Every structure is written in C-alpha cells, then in structure tokens.
Amino acid sequence: MALELTDNNFKDTAVDTEKLVVIDFWAAWCGPCRMLAPIIDQLSEENESTALIGKVDVDNNPEISQKYGITNLPTILFLKKGEIVDKQIGLTSKGALQKKIDALVS
What pTM, to 2 d.p., does this model score? Predict the structure, then answer.
C-alpha cells in the first residue's frame, strides 16, 4: 500500500529522505485517480527498497497541493530531496511509471 501523505507528515516523510519520492495527487471524486490507485499500490510494494511511494488526497491536504501547483488530477510528482525531478499528468500505465522510477533511481 502506498503511504498516505498529509500536510502534517509531508516534510518529515517525503522531503527529509534520500530515497526517490513518488507522489500520487488524487481525489475521491476523480475517476482516473481511482483507476490509477491499484497501480500506485503495486508500484509501492514492488519498489519499497528504492523509492517511497505515497498518495496525497488534494481535498484534505491543500497545503501540499498548493505548494506544488497541482491543478490537474491525477498528477504524479517524482521528488529528490523535495525538488521535482519528473512529473506525470493524467492516467498512465504501470510500465510507464516503472520506467520513470527505474531511470531516476539508477
């Protein structure tokens, strides 16, 4: 399961880490977000040794969403030390996301 990131735990969990951080910005009312959810959970399990994969519910965590300028859902950000190193907007395949993860951790 992907880690639930909130306005309260975001800095300690997602910024202050040496791992690649992959964040799925989603909302319960977003159809494509619901379709992406099982993919994010699978990637979280398969990459737990190399990447921290989490989810941010934009409706409940407006601070993080505003900080990173999230305007479209789903949006997936790839962070290293709190800085965006890649981005995916919209629904995509598990394979495409895994390729991005592999490229950024190597």
Answer: 0.95
